[in-house]
Amino acid sequence: MVSGDGAARTVDALGLGGELLVWREALADGPVSIQPHGQDFYTARAAFLGTDIAALADQRAKLLSAIESGDEIVLWFGCDVFCQVILAALARGVVDAGLGAKRMTLVLPDGDSATCLDGDVDDFRGWHEKRVNIAPAELAALAGLWDVYVAKDPTTLNSATKGTALGFAHAAMQRALACHAKRFPDRFGLGIDERAILEATSSADVSFGDVFRVFCRDRAELGWGDVQASSLVDRLASLPDPAIKKSGELLSSTERGRQALEGSRDLRADGNDLERTLG
User: Fold this and answer.
1) Separation of alpha carbons 148 and 92, rounded Å
2) How far is CA 82 from the centre of its chain?
């Protein structure tokens, strides 16, 4: 099982055999709940994603069926927030289904700086050869970190990964949750992802394509796709006192956006805010 169609094409090119399941979700964005499965969850996610409820339920059913077969289940994930949140949710779903003792292995990119599953066939083959078994204690620890991600008290993120039984996956999840914690507004009202968007639009009128390229370069640890970045742009442009101005196909920071970026005024001061879901 692999997170995303782009990485799936490279995995498929390896010719490893077996069935390839592509997990199509974006759980780091939008409404979530303690149980990442069930009718209410699928209804909320389908409405947010603009997709079919049955498609979300079907991919979980296929994964659980494969796990029940007893065959090795290889999970391919990047070390970024996008992938690691999905990994934690899958662990919670597998544990909830009582399948924690089945054989699952995990593939992660090499190196402390590695983020997304982005490489050539040789890279992917090397990562696959180094895959590591997920022990029941590690799976339970991953499931517990999903509970932290959806907790009503976000301060639990600060110590979430200390002393867990995550083994080799610990560093990747620790970095991802630490990065997620920075999505919450700082004293100038900006999360790390909003700040990156404003930095990319601060100099002149720029296209979304240029903004997205800069965003991916500077915030690769988030693993955001163009959908998530575009949503951030729309949100900053839709504030009562907007932080971004749209002029046709071009984007630029407003005076309010520049003030927040420079640290002279809280972007969210005086009720200048819109609802946003962060776990």
Assistant:
1) 11
2) 2
Round to whole Å and give the CA distance between 256 and 242: 7
CB-side neighbour CA atoms (13 Å) of 130: 12
Supply the pLDDT for residue 175: 84
Residue 120: name the closest of 3, 13, 23 by CA.
Answer: 13
- Cβ(136)–Cβ(99) below 8 Å: no
- Strands in 244-247's sheet, in edge-to-edge order, are 206-207, 250-253, 244-247
- Most confident range (mean pLDDT) of 106-110, 156-160, 275-279 is 275-279
d(CA 57, CA 41) in angstroms, rounded, equals: 10
Other C-beta atoms closer than 10 Å to the C-beta of 248 total: 7
Cα torsion through 163, 164, 168, 169, rounded to 10: -130
- When the pLDDT of each residue in the chain is averaged and rounded to a whole number, the result is 90
Sign of the torsion formed by the C-alpha atoms of 93, 94, 98 and 100: negative
Give the mean pLDDT of 173-188.
Answer: 91
Closest CA to 197 of 215, 219, 220: 215
Detail the DSSP E strand segments found in the chain.
Answer: 2-3, 22-23, 73-76, 104-107, 132-133, 206-207, 244-247, 250-253
Residue 256 near residue 265 (C-beta atoms within 8 A): yes
Count CB neighbours of 102 within 10 A.
20
Q: Lowest mean pLDDT: which of 168-177, 247-256, 264-273?
A: 168-177
